[in-house]
Amino acid sequence: MKPLTCISIDDNPLFTRKLEAFTEGLDWISIVDSYDNPIQGATAIVNTNPDVVFLDIEMPYIDGEYLVDWIKPRLESMEKKPRIIVISSVSEPPEELLANTEGFINKSTVTDPETLEASLKSILG
Predict the structure, then answer these.
(1) Is the dihedral of CA 110, 114, 117, 121 positive or negative?
(2) What is the pLDDT of residues 32-67, one digit of tens each?
(3) Are 68 and 100 in contact (CB under 8 A)?
(4) How far is CA 8 from the centre of its chain?
(5) By three-state DSSP, how is residue 103 classified?
(6) How many Å apart are CA 117 and CA 13, to the nearest integer?
(7) How is the chain split into domains, by residue range?
(8) With contact defined as beta carbons under 8 Å apart, do 68 and 99 qualify?
(9) What is the pLDDT of residues 64-104, one digit of tens each?
(10) Which CATH superfamily is domain 4-124 in?
(11) What separation, in Å, do the N-terminal and C-terminal C-alpha atoms of the chain show?
(12) CB 32 within 8 A of CB 48
């Protein structure tokens, strides 16, 4: 089975490296690119059409909520829409954001590859 392709958009390079390291051993999911700039990340979503997008909420310039609102109409024209998972340190993400994404993972719960994998499987099925 071909692994799900993922893009990570997060301004925290330490968390991005952690996410990449934790998914490295998983054969069903692969982070193909990471962006610390949400504008570049949004462009990559449209251009590369990944299976999954890991998205932080609190970022400079454009927050995750704005990015989802901006990209949502562009995703409508895609045959296969990426599934967006919010991964953030906020305790409760905005309800509207959750309504437009697949699910939420709190960064503090991403402590090891097994925990991350269990969270991803519960969201992605």
Answers:
(1) negative
(2) 999 999 999 999 999 999 999 999 998 888 888 888
(3) yes
(4) 5
(5) strand
(6) 20
(7) 4-124
(8) no
(9) 888 888 888 888 888 899 999 999 998 887 787 778 889 99
(10) Response regulator (3.40.50.2300)
(11) 15
(12) yes
